[in-house]
Amino acid sequence: MLLSLKKKKKKKKKKKKKKKKKKKKKKKKKKKKKKKITG
Known about the structure:
With 39 residues, the chain is mostly helical. The chain has one helix at residues 2-38. The protein is rod-shaped. 0% of the residues are buried.
């Protein structure tokens, strides 16, 4: 049972890396807003 708990903790660390990728997507949305102002 202790080994299964350690594996779950490693999966949580991978989810934190995915959150950093979502922040980059938010920056792309800001660029789209600038195109609407010029258009």
